Amino acid sequence: MSSGHDENAVRIELAKLRQEHRDLDMAISAMNETGRSDALQMQRLKKKKLSLKDRITTLEDKLLPDIIA
Predict the structure, then answer these.
(1) Cα 9 to Cα 3, 18, 23, 39, 49, distances in angstroms
(2) CA 57 to CA 54: how far, in whole Å?
(3) What does pTM read for this prediction?
(4) Which pLDDT score is estimated for 1?
(5) CA atoms of 11 and 56, how far apart (whole Å)
(6) pLDDT single digits (tens) 8-40
(7) More reliable by pLDDT, 62 or 43
(8) Residue 24 to residue 42: CA distance in whole angstroms
(9) Which backbone phi and psi does 23 adopt, to 5 degrees?
(10) DSSP string, 7-54
């Protein structure tokens, strides 16, 4: 397996995760605006959003070379 293929797979995964992160952000905002937010559900969504952000950061770190020696 070539590193180019691996990098492409990481980029595809990143795009999916970023979209899911945006979708969760919009869902959380909509729940806040309508006032129909269930505290437990809101907490779960925010936790999932944070988990996605951590995964996105990990994948971005794989793609970007470490420029700090």
Answers:
(1) 10, 14, 21, 36, 21
(2) 5
(3) 0.80
(4) 46
(5) 10
(6) 999 999 999 999 999 999 999 998 898 877 889
(7) 43
(8) 10
(9) -60, -45
(10) HHHHHHHHHHHHHHHHHHHHHHHHHHHHT---HHHHHHHHHHHHHHHH
- C-beta contacts of 2-5 below 8 A and 24+ residues apart: none
pLDDT bin (cut points 50, 70, 90) of residue 66 is: low
Tokens read off for 22: 């945006």
Fill in the DSSP letter of residue 63.
Answer: H
Place of tokens 């793609």: 63
Q: How far apart are CA 57 and CA 14, in angstroms?
A: 9
Task: Tell me how far apart the alpha carbons of residues 43 and 46 are, in angstroms, rounded to a whole number.
Answer: 5
